[in-house]
Amino acid sequence: MKMRGLYVHIPFCRSKCGYCDFPSEAGREADIGAYLDALTAEAARYDGLAGSFSTLYVGGGTPSLLSPDQFGRLLGVLESLTGPLAGLRESTFEANPESLDEEKAVLLKKAGVGRVSLGLQATQDRLLKQLGRLAMREDFLRAYRTLRAAGFDNLSADLMCGLPGQSEAEFAESLDWLLGLAPEHVSLYALEVHEGTPFHSASVAEAPDAAAAMYEAAAARLKAAGLERYEISNFARAGRESLHNLNYWEQGEYLGLGPGAASYLDGERRANAPALNGYLEAAGAGLPPPEQYREKLQGRAKNAELVMLGLRKTAGIELPEDIFIEFRPELDRLLEAGLIETRGRQVRIREDRLYVANAVFREFV
Description:
The chain has 365 residues and is an alpha/beta fold. The chain is built from 14 helices and 17 strands.
């Protein structure tokens, strides 16, 4: 079944985490009202797509930073394009523990949100402080229990490995503690230090070897706990895979609203520029958001992206015959290197090579 996703970006945070390279700004809560006005104006430009969305993802930033009244305004923007959220195949709302309380959890549930992604990252408070996180382990536990009490039966948690000073024992402790809460979904990320982040400015070093060891140990532990890896960084109980993200990896269509948000419609990729000020100024002048890029994917470039996205999934991708033939030289090289396996035209990265997936993707760039 063809799907179309809607992503809405909330670019506000109370503080910026050291590793974060997403478009978000701290200390700008006073601009949330103006931002919701601008978001309303951008959504109105796509009223022709109203009712065509199967999934919704509200990300950030920190969407849970919004007040209950502001969330009510945001809900109006969302429903102008999606209709009642309960009618979607999936709706996800990102939250940080320090800004999620009982009132907001109940509001989300009543609004029809079915899935919440909650940031944990680690369970050692000293590591969380190094990351610049505001929520400590007990804050996460409180927020998690609050969501369960509100009736949420589909919760995802983010966990990180390869952190500065993090031992394998500490990572295992974090993972086991999280699994004790029985989340339906876990996203596992190795620390990456990107240019422009606080960690990059502070010359924080990545630890790829340590992260790889932690990652492979975690994959086995998660599987034993009933969460199967269905994508490089994502694990879920049966039927709890993120449909919104699966649509990305299957080269489905999606619309992104907000600064830095990307869209893929009618074979064309584009993204809004990430600056919040530019987004607000354009809306104030009655103009569309400034763009970061726009490109029409076609031919070999479109086919190469289809292969790369499909190979992110652990099940891989069954390639149409013409695309399989087009990329046969690349596939043969990857087979010889022991990085992929094939069955007919079904191609997948070997499970024990998923951590070095970038070596596979480079063949299709």
